[in-house]
């Protein structure tokens, strides 16, 4: 599309303002981590690196980070398997209820977290507790995986749609059996879609708080839950700002990696 | 004071409802006797050898081992001295505390007044032999054998500390200095849009307390025992107040920042919030108004199924020992339970600021209790409004 | 296509057929001959998970909306009653809050779309192609900052005399303070990336030749935009709106922090969870019903496929 010069300038300005609006609050988080006051204030009375040192020594934050990573990885793994299976079924087969299935898979992420949270909470209470399984890491992973399936599903479905089944058929004609055709042909072609979907699933799980609140056992504290608990404690609020600032800075790595890996699809991953 | 007092009071108060159902008349009126009848459990008469570890359930900030802040640590010294390794689970709600206690995997818990009764009624918490807790002798008399930590004169736990819900105000913008809750009720219009209130159904008790003083014709005795008419009056008062509310607060930080910026200038608060806000430059003061106030208090209890009873008793003794109780009270921002702690605080004014030794002060504080249908003030000719309805009313008040 | 070479080589296929792999091969053969079996193998695990674990718990929850609680024990009484729904419909508080919540969700969605479009247009079509991936990273990065941290940052921005007041003062204006406006503003900020990313992807995938064809046929930029770009990008907007709309509809934390005394349907659900689960469940049906209707409406545009 050939845009006129004024249109380009207008778009550039709009984008500039948009990015400014996105990043100024994040800058404020960074500033908050340098603010000597224990609760937020404007303008900050001074600057200090004390909180960064305090955060470095904070065992609770480190443990919560590790818990979040484990929960995220496990939920992503489950979502990858289930999402891919479902994507193949929906994209390669016609069956009764196919539309319903592709609708149902969207529900966990579209419905409010609090509804999903209390539904799973009471179901776990009724079904799992008599079996001696209390709320804990396991239930968090189940809860997270449920709403992560859809992002993997969508990424894989989108890829399969553009991927003719003829490659697999050709492989089979040449003597490869179903599993081998998948391993050697389909999987390599899906790899980047799986990575993009998996990364988004991980990101969703990593920042989730509502479902986590209702499915986490007492000993399980993910990073958002830790932040929630500490944001409201005056002794800890600035440390939370440090953790947040550090996360924003570190997040460049996985996102950029995902961009590179999915560079064969213009625009990269799907939400 | 914990991060989400409102959330947990809601959760915790629900606990007491269960208790009353066990011990008192049911709605069909089958005529069971009133009062709490806990299972007949015996407190130990002597302690054995330390078991080497102890499993605790606690509110955030009650059992600090230096992992959140290396300078805040009263667990390491305990472990060194007693040989009892401390394993702590931080619970977020009283419900969680109760369900954890029911697993039998824990030795002791820091229960809120409402959860504590539930644990006593269900037989999960055992009576405590206070003779085995030497430091109990120094606990303030005003905290011993209260309705939330004892049954019929038998102690079920060791008091941890207490706090009152005060009236905080901006000393520059609210003049003259208020000495009555009227500042947030009848005279709230003076600061319309900058009044703040605690975001929990239990806040209805604050309104009831005010009505008790200002509308004697309603006959309110106990702010947690309101019949239909009294309750409606409290709800009406809060609906009026809502027009002047800027925001409701449920956590520390929210209120401190609101007072610092000037978004709030008058409202309910805790002493620790007033202190922190003042230390960060807000011009605020907090008072216990002439009508009195509501408040809260927690108790350390021992599990009836404790696997490490000796270490649990050692912990109870440790947490109310003068030095440790002083540390907890200062970190947490509350009045210590041990009278001798006042000599041990880093800030020598701590006890004075938190009125720790001022029993006359605490006599004016009505500690949180769960409202139930049987009126807690002893009336038998009236039916009181139960807590579940307080929750509905609170939603309606907020609109 | 180099990745395909080994699989296509007859040699390697023969190797795979070698001794010891017989069982796998037989299973593969069985699956190959029976597409129904293959489908069942694919569907069983995900459907068990989604239908049994997820939809099952949801159904159980909504079933409990027809129960009541004992006012003494707060325990659920399993006697069929529509009292909760009658209260839901009859009580003006719930009606007002439900309408307010839908209004907030719609406002947030509209704002997100309006802000995200030029942003995504720039990152997808105006910015230098080499820099585009960087801009996508820039769009996504806020997602990692932590929901709560961002909301508290906004609490500071909106506070009296805070950065927003400070920035607006030269123009004789002041920020909205805490309340409904603040809630809409902060939710828009939070969910913007969910709208911007699908639009960016759709714009980036617009074939150049289509745009050129439009221009060749004499359409001006504006006409091309309305007749070619918008229809092709619309499903992406709808897909983004599923996120912005549903995330706003269920939120209860943001409004607690910057909403002043405002409450949304999520707050009502949350305040009833421990004491009156049936009522909480009944309240929960409101956002669920709204979202299901919304999803069904949006599905026509094919949006769910570009989520």
In short:
The complex is a heterotrimer of chains A (271), B (399) and C (307). Chain B is α/β, with parallel strands linked by helices and 399 residues long.
Task: Spell out the key features of this protein.
heterotrimer, A: 271 residues, 73% helix, globular, disordered C terminus, B: alpha/beta, D-Maltodextrin-Binding Protein, domain 2, disordered N terminus
DSSP helix fraction of chain B: 25-40%
Assembly form of the protein: heterotrimer
* Helix proportion of chain A: over 70%
Largest chain-chain contact?
A: A-C, 113 and 122 residues
CATH topology of chain A: MetI-like fold
Average pLDDT number of chain B? 84
| Estimated share of beta-strand residues of chain B | 15-25%
CATH superfamily of the largest domain in chain B: Periplasmic binding protein-like II
**First-residue to last-residue Cα separation of chain A:** 26 Å
Number of helices of chain B: 13
- The low-confidence parts of chain B are 1-34
Secondary structure class of chain B reads alpha/beta
What gross morphology of chain B would you assign?
A: globular
Rg over C-alpha atoms of chain B, rounded to the nearest angstrom: 21 Å
Write the layout of secondary structure elements.
The complex is a heterotrimer of chains A (271), B (399) and C (307).
Chain A: H1 5-32, H2 50-56, H3 59-92, H4 98-104, H5 107-110, H6 113-127, H7 137-161, H8 166-173, H9 178-206, H10 210-215, H11 223-231, H12 237-261
Chain B: H1 5-23, E1 53-58, H2 76-82, E2 85-90, H3 94-102, E3 108-112, H4 113-122, E4 125-126, E5 150-151, E6 154-155, E7 158-164, E8 166-170, E9 195-198, H5 204-214, H6 228-242, E10 245-249, H7 252-261, E11 266-269, H8 271-279, E12 284-287, E13 293-303, H9 309-319, H10 322-332, E14 335-336, H11 350-353, H12 359-363, E15 365-367, H13 387-398
Parallel strand pairs in B: 1-2, 1-3, 9-10, 9-11, 13-15
Antiparallel strand pairs in B: 3-13, 4-13, 5-6, 7-13, 7-14, 8-11, 8-12
Helix pairs in contact in B: 1-4, 3-4, 5-6, 6-13, 7-8
Chain C: H1 5-8, H2 10-16, H3 22-33, H4 35-64, E1 68-69, E2 76-77, H5 83-90, H6 92-126, H7 132-140, H8 147-158, H9 163-168, H10 180-204, H11 208-216, H12 221-250, H13 253-258, H14 265-272, H15 277-299
Antiparallel strand pairs in C: 1-2
Helix pairs in contact in C: 3-4, 4-15, 6-10, 6-12, 10-12, 11-12, 12-15, 14-15
């Amino acid at each position: 599309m050939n845009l006129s010069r004024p249109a380009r300038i207008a778009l550039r300005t709009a984008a500039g303002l948009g990015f400014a609006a996105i990043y100024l609050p994040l800058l404020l988080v960074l500033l908050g981590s340098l603010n000597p006051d224990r609760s937020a204030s404007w303008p900050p009375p001074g600057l200090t690196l004390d909180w960064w040192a305090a955060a470095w020594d904070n065992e609770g934050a480190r443990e919560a980070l590790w818990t979040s990573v484990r929960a995220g990885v496990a939920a992503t793994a489950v979502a990858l398997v289930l999402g891919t299976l479902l994507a193949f079924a929906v994209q390669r087969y016609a069956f009764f209820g196919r539309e319903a299935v592709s609708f149902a898979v969207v529900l966990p992420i579209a419905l409010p977290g609090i509804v999903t949270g209390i539904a799973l909470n009471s179901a776990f209470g009724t079904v799992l507790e008599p079996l001696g399984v209390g709320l804990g890491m396991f239930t968090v992973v189940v809860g997270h995986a449920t709403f992560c399936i859809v992002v993997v599903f969508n990424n894989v479905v989108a890829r399969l749609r553009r991927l003719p089944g003829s490659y697999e058929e050709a492989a089979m004609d040449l003597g490869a059996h179903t599993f081998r055709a998948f391993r050697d042909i389909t999987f390599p072609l899906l790899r980047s879609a799986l990575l993009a979907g998996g990364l988004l699933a991980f990101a969703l799980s990593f920042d989730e708080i509502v479902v986590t609140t209702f499915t986490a056992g007492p000993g399980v504290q993910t990073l958002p839950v830790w932040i929630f608990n500490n944001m409201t404690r005056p002794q800890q609020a600035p440390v939370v700002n440090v953790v947040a600032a550090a996360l924003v800075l570190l997040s460049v790595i996985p996102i950029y990696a995902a961009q590179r890996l999915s560079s064969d699809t213009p625009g990269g991953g799907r939400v | 004071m914990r991060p989400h007092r409102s959330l947990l009071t809601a959760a915790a108060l629900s606990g007491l409802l269960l208790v009353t159902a066990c011990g008192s008349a049911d709605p069909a009126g089958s005529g069971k006797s009133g009062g709490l009848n806990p299972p007949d459990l015996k407190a130990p008469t002597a302690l054995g050898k330390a078991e080497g570890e102890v499993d605790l359930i606690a509110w955030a900030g009650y059992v600090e081992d230096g992992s959140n802040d290396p300078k805040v640590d009263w667990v390491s010294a305990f472990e060194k001295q007693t040989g009892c390794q401390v394993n702590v689970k931080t619970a977020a709600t009283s419900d969680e505390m109760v369900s954890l206690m029911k697993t039998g995997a824990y030795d002791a818990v820091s229960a809120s007044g409402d959860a504590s009764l539930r644990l006593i009624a269900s037989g999960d918490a055992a009576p405590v032999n206070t003779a085995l807790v030497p430091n109990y002798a120094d606990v303030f008399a005003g905290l011993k054998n209260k309705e939330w930590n004892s049954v019929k004169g038998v102690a079920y736990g060791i008091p941890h500390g207490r706090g009152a819900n005060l009236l905080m105000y901006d000393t520059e913008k609210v003049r003259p200095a208020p000495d009555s809750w009227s500042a947030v009720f009848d005279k709230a219009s003076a600061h319309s849009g900058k009044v703040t209130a605690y975001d929990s159904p239990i806040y209805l008790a604050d309104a009831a307390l005010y009505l008790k003083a200002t509308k004697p014709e309603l006959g309110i005795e106990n702010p947690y025992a309101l019949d239909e008419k009294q309750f409606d009056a409290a709800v009406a008062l809060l609906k009026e107040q809502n027009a002047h509310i800027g925001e409701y607060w449920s956590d520390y930080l929210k209120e401190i920042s609101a007072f610092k910026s000037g978004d709030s200038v008058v409202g309910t608060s805790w002493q620790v919030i007033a202190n922190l806000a003042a230390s960060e430059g807000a011009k605020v003061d907090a008072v216990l108004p002439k009508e009195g106030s509501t408040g809260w208090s927690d108790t350390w209890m021992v599990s009836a199924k404790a696997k490490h009873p000796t270490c649990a008793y050692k912990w109870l003794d440790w947490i109310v020992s003068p030095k440790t109780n002083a540390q907890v009270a200062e970190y947490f921002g509350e009045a210590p339970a041990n009278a001798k702690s006042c000599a041990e605080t880093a800030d020598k004014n701590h006890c004075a600021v938190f009125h720790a030794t001022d029993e006359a002060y605490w006599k004016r504080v009505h500690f949180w209790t769960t409202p139930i249908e049987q009126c807690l003030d002893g009336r038998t000719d009236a039916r009181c409004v139960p807590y579940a309805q307080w929750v509905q009313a609170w939603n309606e008040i907020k609109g | 296509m180099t990745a395909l070479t080994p699989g296509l080589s007859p040699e390697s296929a023969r190797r795979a057929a070698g001794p010891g792999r017989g069982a796998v091969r037989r299973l593969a053969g069985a699956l190959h001959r029976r597409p129904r079996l293959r489908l069942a193998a694919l569907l069983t695990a995900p459907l068990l998970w989604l239908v049994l674990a997820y939809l099952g718990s949801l159904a159980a929850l909504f079933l409990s909306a027809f129960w009541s609680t004992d006012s003494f024990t707060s325990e659920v009484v399993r006697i069929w009653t529509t009292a909760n729904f009658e209260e839901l419909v009859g009580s003006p508080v719930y009606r007002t809050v439900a309408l307010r919540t839908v209004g907030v969700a719609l406002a947030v969605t509209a704002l997100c779309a309006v802000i995200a479009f030029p942003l995504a247009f720039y990152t997808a079509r105006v910015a230098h192609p080499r820099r585009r991936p960087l801009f996508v990273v820039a769009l996504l990065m806020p997602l990692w900052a932590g929901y709560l941290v961002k909301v508290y940052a906004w609490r500071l921005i909106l506070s009296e005399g805070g950065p927003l007041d400070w920035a607006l003062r030269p123009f004789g204006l002041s920020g909205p303070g805490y309340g409904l406006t603040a809630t809409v503003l902060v939710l828009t900020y939070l969910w913007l990336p969910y709208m911007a990313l699908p639009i960016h992807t759709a714009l980036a995938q617009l074939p150049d030749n289509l745009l050129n064809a439009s221009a060749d046929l004499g359409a001006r930029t504006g006409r091309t935009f309305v007749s070619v770009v918008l229809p092709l990008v619309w499903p992406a907007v709808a897909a983004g709106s599923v996120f912005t709309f549903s995330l706003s509809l269920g939120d209860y934390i943001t409004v607690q922090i910057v909403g002043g005394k405002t409450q949304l349907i999520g707050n009502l659900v949350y305040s009833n969870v421990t004491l009156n689960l049936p009522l909480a469940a009944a309240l929960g049906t409101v956002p669920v019903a709204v979202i299901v209707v919304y999803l069904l409406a949006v599905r026509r545009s094919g949006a769910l496929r570009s989520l």
